[in-house]
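Example record for the data management plan.
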Amino acid sequence: MATIYDVAKAAKVSPKTVSRVLNGDAPVGSKTRDAVNAAIAALGYVPSNAARMMRSNKSGLIGLITGAISTSPEPIQPAGLPELLLVQGIQRIIGASGKTLMIADSGGRSEKVPHLIKTFLEHRVEGLIYVAEYHQKVELPPVPDDTPLVLTNCFDERGTPAVVPDDRRGQHDLVKRLIGAGHDRIAYLTLREDIVATVLRRNGYRDALSEAGLAYDPAIVQCCELDNAEGDTQVLWDAIDRMLQLPSPPTVFCCGNDRMALKVYGILRSRGLKVPDEISVAGYDNYRVIAETLFPPLTTAELPYSAMGARAAQRLLGLISGEGRDDRSLAIVAGPVCWRGSVTERRPSNVSKFKIVRED
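Corresponding structural encoding:
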């Protein structure tokens, strides 16, 4: 492999002159520059990026740690695929900045994260982004003050710069749209009780009901996620069966995510109920592989992963340039409601005061 000394010898200049041509940090005559560039091309010389890093303390590298690539418990399960939109949103911004994104997958194992951070620091990354597989509180090892860190889809107690989804507003806006379509008995089938999103979304659900003058009815709200596919289906079946037998049954089932909504479609059809003619269904995430291929297509609130990734990358680049180093505020990103054919518009009731604009 050719060295800078080989280039200098071929161009009949000093190694220092070759360095000046490579780095552009001092004036060099055009003939000398042409001779050096010709020698570089002829010898196939590749400059040492490590040496440049040592001199400038700028590697041009950004480290990204994520579990989104391999969080699926089974190879056939699509878990993790929507979360890749976060990574894509980050890559678009980092790529446009001229820096290089290095990605490490944790395999969903938190004990691997400290080693991955250490490895990135050894490669002298200019900044780090940590992406969680779902909205949660995390505890990461501290990083040097001169290496900015941005958390994405998560937050910590230290006030590390973070970007999270606006789960409360997302559920609020979805339920508001359902009320505007004439629904006043909106069942809510939630995700696990121990996750941040469930608490925030339930609050958003209650906010929308309160604004419309509707009472919160615990009889049509139930957790239907147990981290067990077979168990989840049984709990869903029981919840739907019980709610449909109420004196005033729900007219729409609002699901914790689109995967749950997919199961609800099947359960309702097994009971001979048509969606949305006899019962409406709404999801959450806008997981388009599900939402757009179901029949009828699923009304859902979008989890704004791509926008969150872009916001995280922009914030990190700002921190690297020295902007907002003292800003500890949480960046909260909202997504739209995607209105599709799984929800029918009922006759306006006394609470239906919201104008509906249908989105195909």
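Summary line stored alongside the record: The two ends are 59 Å apart (CA to CA).
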